[in-house]
User: Which sequence fits this backbone?
């Protein structure tokens, strides 16, 4: 079936915005867990060192992605963060993500890489800023 005739094709750009919003919100929770101990988990709160840096990037980056501000560079940084998280925390346990429980880090890394390449979508501060700049010129 041709992409142009697929019933969701007109929604592609908006669904990119929805994807960005959802993964941004989910990343905020990873950050709040490390920084504030909420939601509770075995590894919650009291982050120091690299976990503190990860928590700040997850919380701040997730918030920026949620609203769609500086989307491309933030998504690129978060993609790298998730790759580092995978190779530091999961890969040493086993080579396969299904066994080392690193699937989520891999998926996040590639979703963020896609967002860095594709952009924020139309429902974002970045898109609104671009429209405003285009209107002024």
Assistant:
């Amino acid at each position: 079936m041709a992409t142009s005739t697929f019933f969701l094709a007109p929604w592609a750009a908006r669904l990119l915005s929805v994807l960005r919003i959802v993964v941004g919100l989910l990343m905020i929770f990873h950050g709040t867990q490390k920084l504030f101990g909420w939601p509770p988990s075995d590894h919650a709160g009291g982050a120091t060192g690299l976990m503190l840096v990860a928590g700040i990037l997850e919380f701040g980056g997730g918030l920026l992605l949620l609203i769609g501000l500086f989307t491309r560079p933030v998504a690129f940084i978060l993609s790298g963060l998730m790759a580092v998280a995978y190779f530091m925390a999961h890969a040493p346990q086993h080579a396969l993500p299904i066994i080392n429980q690193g699937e989520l880090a891999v998926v996040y890394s590639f979703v963020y890489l896609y967002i860095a390449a594709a952009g924020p979508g139309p429902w974002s501060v970045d898109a609104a800023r671009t429209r405003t700049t285009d209107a002024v010129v």
Notes: The mean pLDDT is 93. Helices lie at 12-36, 49-67, 71-90, 97-100, 103-118, 125-136.
